[in-house]
């Protein structure tokens, strides 16, 4: 069984993914969030756009996405090797990463 904090985090990530899909559809961008990759500082949401959606249009919406998601910033870029657009949003709470954990 997962610890309670991890379950709450996965629920929050799922809610954020749904909210992001809703925000994108408000701007006329159809697609589906296929994968969520949480990190210590930002979370990467992989958007698989509907056929005909231009990547440049989604990239140009980065500031509007950040505002609508109540986030400080938003980075949007193509995920190389896949039919996906990555949307990076900052986490509510940053985790401290210690150098020892990296070595």
Automatic annotation (TrEMBL):
Xref: InterPro entries: FtsK/SpoIIIE/SftA, FtsK_alpha
Protein keywords: Cell cycle, Cell division
FtsK alpha domain span: 5-91
The UniProt record lists the keyword Cell division: yes
GO biological process, one term: cell division
A Pfam family that the UniProt record links to this protein: FtsK_alpha
Residue intervals passing through the bilayer: none
Subunit structure: Homohexamer. Forms a ring that surrounds DNA.
Protein name per the record: Cell division protein FtsK
Species of the source: Marinicauda algicola
Taxon lineage: Bacteria, Pseudomonadati, Pseudomonadota, Alphaproteobacteria, Maricaulales
């Amino acid at each position: 069984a997962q610890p309670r904090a991890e379950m709450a985090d996965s629920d929050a990530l799922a809610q954020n993914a749904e909210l992001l899909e809703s925000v994108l559809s408000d701007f006329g961008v159809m697609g589906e969030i296929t994968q969520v990759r949480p990190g210590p500082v930002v979370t990467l949401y992989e958007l698989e756009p509907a056929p005909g959606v231009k990547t440049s249009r989604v990239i140009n919406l980065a500031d509007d996405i950040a505002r609508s998601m109540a986030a400080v910033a938003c980075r949007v870029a193509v995920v190389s090797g896949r039919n996906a657009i990555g949307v990076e949003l900052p986490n509510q709470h940053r985790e401290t990463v210690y150098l020892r954990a990296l070595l």
